[in-house]
Design goal:
Blueprint (H helix, E strand, L loop, with lengths): L1 H20 L2 E4 L6 E4 L9 E10 L4 E9 L18 E8 L2 E8 L2 E10 L6 E8 L6 E6 L5 E4 L4 H4 L16 E7 L13 E11 L14 E3 L1 E3 L4 H4 L8 E4 L4 E4 L5 E2 L5 E2 L3 E5 L2 E6 L1 H6 L3 E7 L5 E10 L7 E8 L2 E8 L4 E7 L10 E8 L2 E6 L2 E6 L7 E9 L21 E9 L2 E2 H5 L6 E5 L15 E2 L7 E3 L6 E7 L5 E7 L10 E8 L4 E7 L2 E9 L5 E5 L4 E2 L7 E7 L3 H17 L36 H4 L8 E2 L22 E2 L1 H4 L9 H5 L1 H4 L17 E6 L2 E6 L8 E8 L10 E7 L2 E2 L9 E2 L7 H4 L9 E4 L2 E4 L6 E2 L5 E2 L5 H6 L6 E5 L10 E6 L8 E4 L7 E2 L6 E6 L7 H10 L2 E11 L10 E5 L49 E7 L7 E8 L5 E12 L7 E4 L6 E3 L8 E7 ...
Parallel strand pairs: 33-44
Antiparallel strand pairs: 1-12, 1-14, 2-11, 2-13, 3-8, 3-12, 4-5, 4-11, 5-6, 6-7, 8-9, 9-10, 15-16, 17-18, 19-30, 20-29, 20-32, 21-26, 21-30, 22-23, 22-29, 23-24, 24-25, 26-27, 27-28, 30-31, 34-48, 34-50, 35-47, 36-42, 36-48, 37-38, 37-47, 38-39, 39-40, 39-41, 42-45, 43-46, 45-46, 48-49, ...
Length: 1901
């Protein structure tokens, strides 16, 4: 009984405890792991209370977030609190191990921090109160038993949520629900870190008015990816072996192997792996899992022979905001370990030192550094020390970022740079652990968090491959690389003279000639300089002495040694100075003494060979040369170079490979020679045991063992040597700085160096500031590390692997970035206009190879059509075989099925034409006898040109077509289906994407007597799928927002604008790491990108304008540490080092601009259009984004406001898109108005007197003050000089404008009695075109402008008045010479007047200037336009000279231009006989119309020489201005230089040659008594068979050379040399000797081709030298002699290129040819199908259009059926509304319908013939007429002979008819007709006509 009582008492207690504590859950780090509640007690008026217990190790995690769900949505599935409450939410999270509360309302955020650490993997109790609806909103948070934290709130729902009445209950309370989510749900507001731990005892409650609370457990509303309970799996199922520590991370169980010698996920595998750091590598890692586990420890084992180097570097973090990060650096200094702890607050170091143990002994040592209880504990091997940190009350932990082997320069670090912490670690590392993570194990994982980086950053090189074996590196093993020829590497600075210098070097492979470069050099004590120079012949030695004037005098060694050393192999160099033998002997003795004390090496390992110095005693002995292992035997035995001496071959055993030594701890030690990255010498067993043995000097030099003479230097390279004998006064004693490489202006080698010794001192290459340590690689680099993609060849270079992308179709470091566009449509959009064969890359950087296609760029509707051919012959007869079937499998050129599908998918539309010609009787019968299959493999295709299966295009009625008719005159499916023996054709297109790309065709022949010829066209695709989505921006402040750009996400788009003077922002990703693309100017696109905190810039310049109102492509693509920016067809690259970082980015991506309210101050946004935005290979829907933006400034499509152009007078329409535009006047001076509709240039007149005597005289009649107001006038002329305007008054004040030299407009005016002059220079002012001239008057200056942009100013003080009194000599002596027009001046003053002359002056004026000959228009003074001819002012008198002033401007060249090939047409105004003439100066032709071509064909035997005697040749001088020009054409590409023309000046003092080199480039050289000529080379293929021209102009100011349209200026002093001889087609010293100093001319051979119109023109005389005219007898000899026999001909005509919107002329072709057909390619062969093997056709699904129509019709039919059913049901229900007895109705029916007595022949009742009774149609209960059903078997026929027609209108009544009545009716009918009648079922409804009075009226039931 008592037990029962106890149970009764304790059971409620236990149940209440269970209810009180609730359940326990485990949440993982997954973003979907969560548990959600919806507390019903949380309302607007009550405070919200939640309590729970949590245990976690996570330093950063979200505990819970609260969101409000309105009541209208409370029944829906919650979204984790994110979707329905985007404006506000609350978050409680862990940040750096402490609690953080985040309250967000819209864009306003407030955050609170509780400074208490909770990430210690212990349970903590949290009690949270939130009161957000009171007048004083408050947050309260209690952790465990700590005091409560209170935080007042600023942004709450009381002021901002405002629930609507629908969301409030009857009491006005907020009826919405709150969702409380622990963890996360992966929604749009996902957090970076989710809760990973245990949750226990979750309870909710509310705070009553009296302040009391009551908590209760709730049932979760939603949960995912959580486990009930909180089990420690390390206790129940520990997987860790070998004593490893187990960690239960809630998500998984992790084993810490750091304290063991094992590795792997369960610590079961022996940990024997090591890594070698060679001085240019270090490891970086960011182990955030360590933070999660709260485990701050780093350990590693290391082995090194170097005394110093950084082991690791990291930061120490604390969990408070005000905590500054200490840094911890473990470093070896002088072989001892030092732990340096930098305190940023105190700006000082603290250090732990271990000075009792040497660690650079080549043995393994173990280092562990751990952070516990704010103490750093350091353990090296068995020794241990610790150091206490600041803020001992805080929780500290190591940062996730750790750098092993080096301390890089970190951004935002104020730690000073120390020499001891700047050297990288060199040696071996193993068992590297950061927390519980094995770094070496992680490096081999699929997604490593660690990486190997380079110390010396290089943008162009790949990091050196990492050796995961231990190499016993020593000083002489290290290599240093010089990457640039202008970089010097100082080796040492010695105060005492040195006698020997040795090193090993390795140079990149190189073919062809190269410039001499310096390997090493230094200075002598006597001041001379020595250099070891590398050339193509080998290595030689130079001594340079400088005299007092600074002139260098060089002494060179007797020849060179080594030969071509650019072979990628190691070579040895030894430099020996006088006296080195004795010193070497002392070294040898010391080395032998040390060697005798060493351990004897093993028998199987060859000992290191000492460097045996030549003995003085034995001068005749020969030193044996040793062949290095890196040398081939053939190289060692090679014949010495000229002047060099070869040494004997080395013993074979010396070159033997040593065995690989094995280090302790079971780690294999690779020899450095094997690892060669870094390249090292062979590591022998002796060297491994004794470090001193390794320091022996290898004997690699040869030569005799003799004492060097006092003035001799010996240079050894491998097995050869050469001597240099210096002057006796030189002191051959080198001292000072020894340097490798070159310097600016003194090119050095770029290669690798190692084993560098100055005397017996080994140089520490780690001190090299300009070199890269450890970058040199070996020949196996590509096998170890092949970075090349797309099957590009990998080349193992000296500095690492390089990728040969030349023939891969890709660019970039790794051949990853595609060279070619994806389709022809992309090429067209990028500016390509050449039709023909192109190469495209369908998937960009994907695995598909580039392919050849034909591009049609001339189609105006579909621009850029990609055409793919196949192997089916056109016109193949397909029905000529035996009875049965025939199949064809179609193969496409260069395309497999995958490529074919890709092209179809990415194209906007595709089509394939087909044509079938039937001869006689050969019907198509699509579907039964003919069908096709496409690459989409959707079934048999049985139609073309029609959406209906089985039909041809003629059934569609397109273009008025109709199919043929059969014999019954019915339309046939196809024309050829007419069986009438008439030849017909069916043709059409496969258009649907599923039906194009035909790969199989089947044809059945049954009972066919004719033949069928089939032609299948190529597959043609155009456009890009979804790329036409376009938006337009009409304001620079408009923009579209998209999700954040990925870190290396490719992006591309097209844009269109007409911006001229302003930049435009196209794309912007803001933030600390930013990226933006800018339209910089009309031809430039610029990228600004942040790389490792630094903003970098990359620009692409395109050859055509980007603001020409067409779409232009912009693409950004990422490769290996590089990015490529593409604009149209032009690209540029930006590279960065592997250590640099791009991104990540945050915030929205802006397209077209950025928010104006942001205040970022960037370029204005785009006014224009953007199309086809593609991100990461996915098309972005721009139109949907524009609609969502709801901005009037952003619209769909590209709506141009300038088509057609609304502006007048050739004004440019500036399109602001969306109906807005601005007119930019072509001539802003002459045109005005909103649309530039006003034009003052309509007032035109001509001065047609060629002598310049015509002018217009405005006598005292110019409105305004012409002497002080603005003046505008336009002119056109071909004359180089002419007076434009002259005006003066009675006091001699004047203003004058005139043209001079055809390129200057000069304004002359007076200021008081001083004459001022102002001029503007512009080329081409006499080109016959209109030019605008404007004089602007300002307060203190006068502006003169020509054609708007050529402006010059003159300061004129407006306060100085003009001349007020008349003087006959008005000007000051200083300026009187500037007056060029002097009017007649008397002795006395006259009455006031102001006269103006236009185009000239009277003959009474004194001037040397000529009058104007041409046209003038738009004369305006101030605001008054002067009309010379149509003056309406009676007081104004306008006089003109009678001859030569004509209204209008009749320019003959505008109506008819007789000049060809670019000749200038010159108008002869007023000349009716010859209205124009041609100037051929800028063409390669001569003659009246620039069409004359006097030329000759030249061969290798042609000789043509013309001598011009001094009487004529002296007129053609270089310094006086002369021009040499010619034209040529050839398709013969010479093998060496050939001469087109040689001009030899008098006494051979100068010789000018024009020729071609072996590359087809034009070469122009001028010799002036100097072996080195002035040379200009114009690159390009000028041996292409086309016509080309060369023009060389010379004057006293220099020269210029123009080839075709490209011109270059040459700054050169030219002498006064005149022409003497001209040789055409060659340089022949026998026919025309050249100057002895001009021997370079003899390298020119004979030209093969055509040369024409050779002309030498002078600026002094009108004479022209034309040697070919003379040679071909077109000119009489005049002071000249000619010899030569030539065949006259004309050279090729020039190509006429019309202007085009693209980069090329559409008529041009690419010049590419389709490659040879691949193996297996052949024309399609039919597969014969016997009758019994013919496959059954399976019809492919119809096109989308047919499917849509079918679906619509089906839905409509279904609706009709449903409507009929509903209607019939209603009829059935209607019958119940009639309260009529069924029996009475039956009787009534029987009585009314049957004749009396049952005899149908009885008289019909009078009911049928009463015409006077009106009949009203009965209405059913729904007020609708009852449908009638007339059955002749039931109702007597009105036409029956026994029944007269009814005369009374009737209505119908439907009544049920029983079986008995129907039987009686049937019997009567049988009696009447004599036959039986078939009656319907007895359940049918009888319909009868009754008079209205007999009708049954319905009554409501």
């Amino acid at each position: 009984m008592w037990r029962f009582l106890c149970i009764c008492i304790l059971l409620p207690v236990v149940l209440s405890q269970e209810q009180e504590h609730g359940k326990m859950y485990t949440l993982s780090a997954s973003k979907s792991s969560h548990i959600s509640y919806q507390p019903p007690m949380w309302t607007a008026t009550a405070g919200q209370h939640v309590a729970f217990r949590v245990r976690t190790r996570s330093l950063n995690a979200v505990l819970l977030h609260i969101d409000r769900v309105p009541s209208s949505l409370s029944g829906q599935q919650p979204t984790g609190g994110g979707e329905h409450s985007k404006d506000s939410h609350f978050v409680l999270k862990i940040a750096q191990g402490r609690l953080s509360l985040l309250n967000q309302l819209g864009e306003r955020v407030e955050q609170f921090v509780v400074n208490q650490f909770v990430s210690d993997n212990e349970f903590h109790t949290l009690r949270f109160f939130r009161d957000i609806h009171s007048q004083n909103p408050l947050l309260r948070l209690t952790v465990d038993n700590a005091p409560e934290n209170r935080f007042p709130l600023l942004y709450t729902a009381l002021h901002h949520e405002n629930p609507t009445s629908a969301e409030q209950d009857s009491a006005g309370n907020d009826a919405g629900l709150y969702t409380v989510t622990f963890g996360g749900k992966g929604d749009s507001r996902s957090f970076d870190n989710q809760l990973n731990g245990c949750l226990f005892d979750v309870k909710f409650g509310h705070i009553d008015v009296d302040g009391s609370t009551k908590l209760q457990s709730l049932t979760p509303h939603d949960h995912a990816e959580l486990v009930e309970g909180c089990e420690n799996r390390c206790e129940t199922n520990n997987p860790c072996q070998n004593g490893a520590t187990c960690f239960d991370d809630y998500s998984q169980v992790t084993c810490d192997c750091s304290a063991t010698e094992f590795t792997g996920s369960d610590c079961a595998q022996p940990d024997t792996e090591a890594i070698t750091l060679s001085g240019n590598q270090f490891i970086s890692t960011a182990n955030h899992d360590m933070l999660y586990r709260g485990y701050s420890r780093i350990r590693l084992d290391f082995k090194t022979r170097f005394p110093d180097g950084v082991l690791f570097h990291l930061n120490v973090k604390g969990h408070s905001d005000d905590h500054s990060e200490e840094t911890v650096t473990a470093v070896l200094i002088d072989q001892y370990l030092r732990i340096i702890i930098w305190n940023p607050s105190l700006k000082q170091d603290n250090a732990l030192e271990f000075k009792h143990k040497l660690l650079s002994d080549g043995q393994w040592h173990s280092l562990t550094v751990e952070l516990k209880d704010s103490k750093i504990i350091v353990k090296i091997d068995t020794d241990e020390k610790n150091f206490g940190l600041r803020h001992l009350q805080e929780k500290h932990f190591f940062s996730p970022e750790v750098y092993i082997g080096y301390k890089p320069n970190l951004p935002n670090s104020d730690e000073p740079t120390r020499a001891e912490t700047s050297r990288p670690f060199i040696g071996c590392l193993k068992r590297i652990y950061h927390g519980t993570t094995s770094i070496l194990h992680d490096l081999h994982s699929a997604h490593p968090i660690a990486s190997v980086n380079t110390v010396h950053e290089s943008h162009e090189l790949f990091p050196a491959p990492v050796s995961f074996t231990c190499s016993d590196l020593r000083q002489e093993d290290l290599s240093v690389a010089l990457l640039s020829p202008d970089v010097a590497l100082p080796l040492a600075s010695t105060l005492e003279p040195y006698k020997t210098l040795q090193l090993s070097f390795r140079l990149p492979k190189r073919e062809g000639q190269s410039l001499p470069t310096k390997i090493v050099g230094g200075n002598l004590t006597s001041g001379e300089e020595y250099k070891v120079i590398l050339s193509d012949k080998g290595v030689h030695l130079e001594l340079i002495r400088y005299d007092a004037s600074g002139t260098a005098h060089t002494t060179t060694s007797e020849g060179a040694v080594g030969g071509n050393l650019h072979d990628g192999q190691w070579h040895n160099l030894f430099l020996q100075w006088p006296g080195s033998s004795e010193r070497r002997k002392r070294q040898e003795e010391a080395t032998e003494t040390a060697a005798s004390q060493e351990t004897t090496p093993s028998a199987d390992a060859p000992a290191a060979v000492e460097l045996a110095a030549p003995a003085v005693e034995n001068a005749e002995a020969k030193a044996e040369a040793v062949v290095e292992p890196t040398q081939s035997a053939e190289t060692a035995a090679a014949a010495p170079a000229e002047g060099a001496t070869a040494a004997p071959a080395a013993p074979a055993e010396v070159a033997a490979e040593p065995p690989v030594p094995v280090a302790d701890a079971g780690v294999p030690v690779a020899s450095a020679a094997d690892a060669d990255s870094p390249p090292v010498e062979t590591a022998t067993a002796e060297a491994a045991e004794n470090p001193n043995a390794r320091m022996k000097i290898p004997q690699f030099y040869g030569g005799q063992d003799t004492v060097l003479l006092p003035h001799m230097i010996r240079l050894h390279v491998d097995s050869q040597y050469v001597d240099l004998k210096a002057e006796e006064y030189m002191k051959l004693s080198p001292t000072g700085v020894v340097s490798l490489g070159g310097r600016p202006g003194d090119l050095g080698v770029n290669g690798c160096f190692r084993n560098i010794r100055v005397d017996d001192q080994v140089y520490d290459v780690r001190k090299a500031q300009n070199g890269v340590v450890g970058q040199c690689s070996n020949e196996q680099t590509c096998q170890e590390q092949n970075p090349c993609q797309n099957n590009a060849p990998c080349i193992s270079g000296v500095f690492g692997p390089t990728c040969d992308c030349q023939n891969s179709g890709y660019h970039g470091k790794t051949c990853h970035l595609p060279v070619y566009a994806q389709t022809c449509a992309d090429l067209y959009s990028a500016g390509e206009r050449r039709s023909g064969v192109h190469i495209i890359d369908l998937d960009g950087s994907g695995p598909m190879k580039p392919v050849y296609v034909n591009c049609n760029m001339s189609n105006q509707e579909q621009r850029g059509i990609t055409s793919v051919g196949h192997n089916f012959r056109s016109g193949t007869e397909i029905r000529d075989g035996p009875s049965g079937g025939r199949q064809y499998n179609i193969q496409y050129r260069q395309f497999d099925k995958v490529a074919l599908k890709k092209l179809i998918d990415i194209s906007k539309q595709c089509r394939q034409h087909i044509s079938y010609r039937c001869i006689s009787n050969a019907p198509l019968k699509l579907g039964t006898h003919t069908w096709f299959r496409s690459v989409a493999d959707v079934g048999n295709i049985t139609s073309f040109g029609s959406d209906v299966p089985g039909r041809c295009s003629c059934t569609s009625g397109a273009s008025g077509q109709v199919c043929a008719l059969d014999r019954k005159l019915k339309d046939l499916p196809c024309n050829c289906d007419a069986d009438d023996n008439v030849d017909r054709v069916d043709e059409g297109d496969f258009k649907t994407k599923e039906f194009v790309g035909i790969t199989n065709m089947t044809f059945i022949k049954r009972n066919m007597k004719g033949a069928g010829l089939l032609t299948l066209g190529p597959l043609e695709c155009d456009g890009r799928e979804n790329i036409e989505r376009t938006v337009s921006f009409s304001s620079e402040n408009s923009n579209l927002q998209f999700p954040t750009l990925g870190q290396t996400e490719d992006i591309s788009f097209f844009f269109r604008t007409n911006l001229v003077l302003t930049k435009a922002l196209l794309l912007y990703q803001p933030g600390r790491n930013s990226l933006r693309i800018v339209f910089s100017n009309a031809t430039t696109i610029t990228l600004y990108i942040t790389i490792s905190g630094r903003l970098r810039e990359l620009s692409v310049v395109v050859p055509r304008p980007l603001n020409n109102q067409v779409m232009h492509l912009v693409r950004l693509e990422y490769g290996f540490n590089e990015v490529r920016l593409t604009a149209d067809l032009n690209s540029n690259y930006l590279s960065w080092s592997p250590n640099d970082k791009v991104g990540p980015y945050h915030g929205p991506l802006y397209i077209g601009g950025y928010p104006s309210a942001s205040g970022w101050g960037l370029e204005p946004g785009l006014v224009g259009c953007i199309q086809g935005l593609i991100r990461g290979g996915q098309t972005v829907d721009l139109t949907a984004a524009a609609e969502a933006a709801k901005s009037s400034q952003i619209r769909r499509e590209c709506q141009s406001s300038c088509s057609p152009n609304p502006c007048k007078n050739n004004a440019e329409c500036f399109d602001k898109f969306g109906g807005i535009y601005e007119c930019i006047c072509a001539n802003p001076i002459a045109h005005s108005g909103a649309q530039c509709e006003h034009d003052i240039n309509t007032k035109v007149f001509s001065l047609t007197n060629s002598t310049g005597s015509a002018f217009a005289y405005l006598k005292n009649s110019v409105p305004g003050d012409i002497l002080r107001e603005n003046i505008s006038i336009s002119f056109r002329t071909h004359r180089r000089t002419g007076i434009l305007l002259y005006a003066h008054d009675n006091n001699n004040n004047f203003v004058q404008l005139h043209l001079q030299e055809g390129r200057k407009v000069i304004m002359t005016l007076n200021s008081a009695n001083s004459i001022r002059r102002l001029e503007v220079t512009r080329d081409g002012l006499s080109d016959g075109r209109w030019h605008q001239l404007h004089v602007g008057r300002w307060e203190n200056r006068v502006d003169l402008s020509v054609d708007f942009d050529n402006i010059n100013s003159l300061d004129v003080d407006a306060t100085v008045a003009g001349l007020q009194l008349y003087k006959s000599k008005p000007w000051s002596r200083a300026t009187v010479g500037l007056e060029t027009i002097t009017p007649p001046r008397g002795e006395y003053a006259t009455t006031a007047y102001t006269d103006a002359y236009v185009g000239g002056v009277r003959s009474t004026f004194n001037t040397q200037l000529t009058g104007f000959y041409g046209c003038l228009r738009g004369l305006r003074v101030g605001q008054n336009v002067i009309d010379v001819f149509n003056s309406t002012d009676p007081e104004r008198v306008t006089e003109r000279t009678d001859l030569g002033v004509v209204e209008g401007c009749e320019a003959s060249c505008e109506t008819y231009n007789p000049c060809q090939y670019g000749g200038m047409c010159i108008n002869r105004w007023g000349d009716t006989e010859q209205p124009s003439e041609c100037n051929c100066r800028n063409t390669s032709f001569t003659g009246a119309n620039c069409t004359e071509d006097i030329g000759a064909t030249f061969s290798d035997q042609s000789v043509a020489v013309v001598e011009y005697k001094p009487g004529r040749g002296t007129n053609f001088k270089l310094s006086s201005g002369m021009t040499v020009r010619l034209a040529f054409s050839t398709d013969y590409k010479p093998s060496s230089k050939v001469a087109l023309l040689l001009v030899q000046f008098y006494d051979k003092q100068a010789e000018l040659v024009i020729g071609l080199n072996e590359a087809g480039h034009v070469v122009v050289e001028l010799y002036q008594l100097d072996p080195n000529p002035v040379r200009r080379i114009f690159p390009g293929n000028f041996a292409d068979g086309n016509r080309h021209s060369v023009r060389v102009s010379a004057s006293a100011f220099g020269a210029s050379v123009q080839v075709d349209d490209h011109k270059e200026d040459v700054n050169i002093a030219l002498g006064s040399h005149f022409v003497h001889y001209v040789m055409v087609g060659r340089v022949d010293s026998n026919a025309l000797p050249v100057h002895p100093q001009h021997q370079g001319l003899l390298a020119y051979g004979p030209f093969i081709g055509c040369i024409s119109n050779v002309r030498i023109e002078s600026d002094l005389v009108e004479d022209v030298l034309q040697p070919l005219h003379l040679l071909l007898n077109h000119e009489e000899p005049s002071l000249s002699n000619a010899r030569g026999d030539l065949n006259e001909t004309q050279c090729a005509l020039p190509l006429i290129v019309e202007p085009t919107a693209g980069l090329y002329d559409p008529s041009q072709t690419t010049g590419l040819q389709m490659p040879h057909d691949p193996e297996g390619w052949a024309w399609a062969v039919p597969i014969e199908l016997p009758s019994d093997q013919i496959p059954k056709p399976s019809v492919a699904p119809r096109s989308n259009t047919a499917m849509i129509v079918g679906i619509v019709c089906g839905v409509f039919l279904l609706l009709v059926i449903i409507a009929v059913i509903i209607y019939m049901c209603r009829l059935r229900r209607r019958k119940a509304n009639y309260p009529v007895n069924e029996q009475n109705v039956e009787e009534n029916v029987e009585e009314k319908l049957l004749p009396h007595g049952g005899d149908p022949r009885h008289t019909i009742p009078p009911i049928y013939n009463n015409p006077n009774k009106p009949v009203r149609a009965p209405q059913d209960p729904f007020n609708r007429p009852v449908s009638k059903f007339i059955d002749d078997t039931l109702i007597p026929n009105p036409q029956h002979p026994l029944l007269p027609p009814p005369a009374v209108p009737t209505r119908q009544v439907n009544t049920p008819v029983t079986a008995a009545i129907l039987q009686r009716l049937a019997a009567n009918a049988h009696n009447v007709n004599g036959t039986a009648n078939d009656f319907p079922d007895t359940n049918r409804t009888l319909v009868r006509s009754v008079p209205e009075e007999d009708s049954v009226e319905p009554t409501n039931p």
